[in-house]
Amino acid sequence: MTSKKEESKSKEGDAPSLTEEVAPHIAIQGYEGCFHQQAAQYYFGKHVTVECCATFKEVIAAAKDKSRTDGCIMAIENSIAGSILPNYNLLQSSGLKIVGEIYMQIHQNLLVNHGVELEDIKEVHSHTMALQQCYEFLDQYKWKLVETEDTALSAKHIAQYKSKHIAAIASTLAAEIYDLKVLAPKIQTLKKNYTRFLVLKRPEDVKEEQIGNKASINFKTIHKEGALARVLGVIAIHKVNLSKLQSFPIPGSDFKYQFHADMEFDNIKTFHRVIEKITPLTEGIKIYGIYKKGIWK
Ligand SMILES: O=C(O)C(=O)C[C@]1(C(=O)O)C=C[C@@H](O)C=C1
User: Which residues does the UniProt record annotate as the domain Prephenate dehydratase (predicted)?
Assistant: First the structure.
């Protein structure tokens, strides 16, 4: 049986020559018209093919499976709704490497079937992160908010069932694909609304250390005063920019914490020096990847 990955590679007919670049097949959370698909196209180009998964857990499983995909794209944080904490745990247990990141401007829209007006709406369906990005708009109404797997899938469902009382929050691309009306455009709480996505690959497919100016690491510190401050001091002394520090509980540890840190630097040697110096101050330090800082799109 041909896997979806092989199918996608042979779509154009003949097997690609050795010199020909093969469009990657990438696992995403969501379906046709979702923001992950747009992020995949932005990063890999229009020819990328996607393996649509219902949950982030499935995305990671698909990314780890060589017969299914070449890796995945996973949202990790949003500038309005904040960090997607469960994804930090998934990243940690996955063993996958970060090879890139994407900051993508997200416009959320209220979509309905043609003929439906604001006063007809009783429920609004969307991905939890999308709903959270639109609370200020949604708070004006008494609609029931329903969390779904995906923005685009919500749009597809209201079109499919010709719903008269349900709206979806999704992209204008989803509106086009499923022939829905944009009843209210750009309803996210702040005009500027960015989601950061990580590009992950299996470690064996990351041939050599990436050339980059950003890195993500994970570490634990002992439960003693000043332990984290000492680590941060080393980072500061080396003039490395700590662009994100996220603490999250170690599962099953009665609230002991681990830290995820993103760092930006001009010289890779400086980053390695920081790692050398903080290793004795931390436990279980892990480098998730060295990659090129994403451009805000
Ligand atoms: O539902 C989608 O369209 C997704 O791609 C998921 C997702 C997310 O996980 O944050 C992606 C970007 C937006 O922030 C809203 C939802």
Answer: 25-202
Is 62 a pocket residue for ligand 1 (Cβ < 6 Å)?
Answer: no
pLDDT for position 10: 43
**Cβ(33) to ligand 1 under 6 A?**
no
pLDDT at 9: 47
ipTM greater than 0.90: yes
Sorted by where each starts, the structural domains of the chain and their CATH numbers stand as 22-105+193-202 (3.40.190.10), 109-184 (3.40.190.10), 214-291 (3.30.70.260)
Q: What's the predicted TM-score (pTM) here?
A: 0.91
CA nearest ligand 1 atom 10, residue: 129
Ligand 1 centre and the CA of 187: distance in Å? 15
- Calpha distance 253→18 (Å, rounded): 49
Spell 158-169 as b/e; 16+ CB within 10 A means b: bbeeebeebbbb
Which pLDDT score is estimated for 106? 97
